[in-house]
Every structure is written in structure tokens, then in C-alpha cells.
Amino acid sequence: MPVPIELRAVTHAYRTDSGPLPVLRDLNIKMAEGSFTAVVGPSGCGKSTLTRLIAGLMRPDEGQVWLGGEIIRSPRSTVGMAFQNPVLLEWRTILQNVMLPLEIVKNSLSRAQREDRARALLALVGLEGFEDKRPSELSGGMRQRASLCRSIVHRPQVLILDEPFGALDAFTREDLWQTMHDLRAEEPFTCLLITHDLRESVFLADDVVVLSGRPATAQYRLPVTFQDKRSLNDLYTPAAVEMLATLRHQIEIAQGRTTETAA
Ligand SMILES: Nc1ncnc2c1ncn2[C@@H]1O[C@H](COP(=O)(O)OP(=O)(O)OP(=O)(O)O)[C@@H](O)[C@H]1O
């Protein structure tokens, strides 16, 4: 079985009016089937660029991005994405919004099966009873829950989450971490999360990759040592504190504040 996502020696620069801006340099990342990888790094180091390359929205200058054994050269329906601001269509109900990818992506499901799948996901994230509401009738957190359902309803090979919880208040955000974790236990998928929140990365991921300052390379990889079934209380354990301290230190190195290597 090929590794679902692999970045091999990816190097990329943007062409700007003042010359090339090198963003990624010899970046190697491998994500195993069903794994959850979080990517953290200093602001502007190239995290969103990385998601655009994986989504096939652009190609790297050098190196390759592999998806399921093939080089990605254009956008794929097998890559799902969710962003900070969920773009739900106001003229559709929440259920119809969640069903949208099943109308676009080729599949053999009947209308009833599509609806069943969307309803089941909405129930999993606590939105049972809101299926017929319009997006504007829901809170920001509820809209993001619906958006998460929409991003996985067609069972993409890989889900890319680019700061999906960044715009939410702290309590809603933590609630959604738990929802995301529980959702993945029910509907396993391979996931890449871009985040600025170290606690979020540790709670959700199996591995956290720290990118260096620009041009970014994979500076450090932290295997998360929590058990598979997690709760928010895990974030207050000594193991969590140690992992967070390690990541904090690595970010400081990436920001150029210290040149020490982590113990
Ligand atoms: N289309 C573009 N053309 C030119 N420069 C770009 C383009 N897109 C991004 N950049 C620049 O490339 C660098 C990396 O951008 P990117 O958005 O990938 O970083 P990021 O790590 O996601 O940032 P942040 O942490 O602030 O969200 C930044 O300096 C940005 O200004």
C-alpha cells in the first residue's frame, strides 16, 4: 500500500516583483495511511504554501508531492480541505451543504444513501436536529462542525485542515478538538493539520512536524505519546507539558531566537 502523502525534497519559491522569494527548501514529510500529522512553524514560514501544493493548486519548483503512489499535478477530489472560515452556502440547508461533495464527486450512492451519510455525520458532531437550518441560523462553532462534516462526507483519501479552529473562542475551539478526535475514531481518515496552536497540535496529532523559518524545511518531528483515545484532560498531564515545552523550544529555534538544539 503506498504512503498516502509524501513530500520528497520539495523546494519552492514565489516569483515576486522584488525577485524570487524562497519559501520551502528540501522539505520531506511522509504521512502513513490513517495518520494525523500537524504542521507548526513560525508565521509566514510556508505552511499554507504546503497545503496548496498537496491540494494540487500549484506545483513545486523542485521535488514531488505524492498522493497514494502518484505525483500530484492538479487538484484531486480525493483531497478534502477545511479552512478557518467555513464557506457554507446560505441558500442550502445544513444537510444540503454537507451533501454537496457527494453531488460533485463521482460516486455510486443513491440520493437516500447520500442523505443517510450526511445525517449520520451531523449526528456524530452533535448537529442532530439542525439539518434543516440555514447556515446563518447556526453559531460559528456549529458552522465549523458542519463544514468538517462536509469536508469528509465523500471519504477523501486525505483531509487538509488549514487553521480550521483559529477563528473560534477558546472553549468552542477545545470542544471542536474533541469532536474532531471522536469523529476520526468513527470515520478514520488521513489528516494534515496546519495550526499555530501547539496544544491543538498535541491533542489531535500522532506526529507534530515543526517547520524552520523561511525557506522552511522539516526541522523537528515530535511523536505524540498520548493514548489513542484522548480527552482534554490529557493536556494537563506531565507528558503533555513536556511535549509542549519541546515544541515551544523548537519554535524558538525556528524563529531564530535560540540556536540550541532541543534536549
Ligand atoms: N502567491 C504568492 N506570491 C508571493 N508571495 C507569496 C504568495 N503566497 C504566499 N507568499 C509569501 O510566502 C510566504 C509564505 O506564505 P504562507 O502563507 O505559505 O505562510 P504561512 O506559514 O502559512 O503563514 P502564516 O503562519 O502567517 O499563516 C509569506 O512570506 C507570504 O507573504
UniProtKB/TrEMBL annotation:
Family matches, as InterPro entries: AAA+_ATPase (IPR003593), ABC_transporter-like_ATP-bd (IPR003439), ABC_transporter-like_CS (IPR017871), ABC_transporter_ATP-bind (IPR050166), P-loop_NTPase (IPR027417)
Xref: Pfam families: ABC_tran (PF00005)
GO terms assigned for molecular function: ATP binding
Keywords: ATP-binding, Nucleotide-binding, Transport
Recorded superkingdom: Bacteria
Domain named ABC transporter: residues: 5-238
Family: Belongs to the ABC transporter superfamily.
Protein name as catalogued: ABC transporter ATP-binding protein
